[in-house]
Amino acid sequence: MRRERRGGARGQPRTPALPKERLMAKGGSNTVYLVGLIFAILVSLVLLGVCYKLNEDLTAQEAKVRSAERKLEDEKKRVKELAAENKSIKELVTGDPTAQFSKDHYDDTILKEANKTLQDILSEEWIATDDWKNIQDPDVKAIWEKIASYRGEMDHFRSLNQLSKELMEQLKAVIHLIPRLRYERIRANEQVRSIRDQMDKMRAAKDKEIDDLRARLTAADDQILEQARKYDQEKKVLQDDIAKLREENKRITRDNAFVVARLESEKAQLLAKIKDLTKKEQRTFTANAKPDGEVVYADANLGYAWIDLGSNHGLRRNTQFHVYQYIKGGRQKVKGVIEVRRVEPDMSQCAILLEQEVKDPVTGEKVVVPDPNDPIVKGDLIRNPFFDKDEQKVFVFFGSKTHNGTYNLAEMKRKVAEFGGKVESKVTTETDFVVVLDEEDEDFREKFELATQFGVIFMREDEFLEYIGR
Question: N or C terminus of the chain: which is more exposed, having fewer CB within 10 Å?
Answer without folding.
Answer: N
